[in-house]
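Amino Acid Chain and Its Fold in Token Form
===========================================
Scope: a single protein chain, as residues and as a discrete description of its fold.
Amino acid sequence: labelled as such and written in the usual single-letter residue code.
Position: the record begins directly beneath this header, with no further notes in between.
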Amino acid sequence: MFYWILYPLRDSATLFNLFGYITFRAAGATFTAMLVAFAAGPAIISFLRKHQIGQTVRDDGPKSHLTKEGTPTMGGLLILLSLLVPVLLWGRLDNRLLMVVLISTVWMGLIGLLDDYLKVVRHCSKGLVGRYKLAGQFLLGVAMGVWLCFSPVQEGASPAPQVFPSVRTIDLESSTQIDIRSTETTVPFFKGIRIDLGFLYILFVALVLAGTSNAVNLTDGLDGLATGVSLISILTFAAMAYLLGNVNFAEYLQFSYLPGVGEVLVFAGAMAGACLGFLWFNAPPAAVFMGDTGSLALGGAIGSMAVVTRNELLLFLVGGVFVAEVLSVVIQVVWFKRTGRRVFRMAPIHHHFELLGWRESKVVVRFWIIAAILGLLGLTTLKVR
């Protein structure tokens, strides 16, 4: 909104020229998201508490968690509200990559909201049946894959024409024109190597979105854990979106310029601000939990950002904490079925460390540190390749 209203006034006042810069609008989106979260947080928490929308705690988990029984959940509504307002104000909604990421996040959040509603409000112990949840996630992934593969490239927009379904761009090292196909994904650490998946790309996108959203959901078990780790992943892909969408940085780092993807930085700024605002209330001892509403939305945001920056495979590194959480559950289930014994004291793995005697805050901070290291390693792949 601000871009369309204020940027045209730049000829009368140079101050309004700032609204043409993605970095300025991303910063504005970040601060706006935090303000919305700080302003709306107490009201949303009060509403959830008034209607007794509280967390149910498993009695077979760490005993310290029993005190969290009844803490308001579905706090992901605060994340979604704090995201939508600044994106609508600061983002360019004619940028289809921005819209892809926004729609993916909201869609996943709505699936999580339905799951939370069935579990907490309707008291259905299993919530949304797993196959229906997966069906909703895969439907989004297939729709996103088809849209990115077959929808026409938008011409005549500023910034440059957007990258999907294919675009002729420039390899800035060799100064030669190349065609980047919409069904290709890049390989971390290797320059110039891209895998063309053809029609399998549509299924690949669906797997990325479903896998990432469910991985974040599994990580959401300690106060501030999923929020902090997600924030680091979002900032990592935000940096990639900006660098890949900026011709000057592309020339310096010697990789192919992806026009249009830089606008995703505005979304990332809004989501980062929403995470920080939510963390204010979610810091231990948490006043509210995000529930599936928040965790699935965060997973949708991270997964879709990886897709539009063509760094889907890099999720295994940048989202290494999420990968470890998923693997711990898989290993635990498979090994227990085969031997009747457990590998971990409890899965996901963050509960294992709790049962080893680590304080909850220690587990959270150390997982944050690991996520930060992995995020930095992910960024180094741009220079390495």
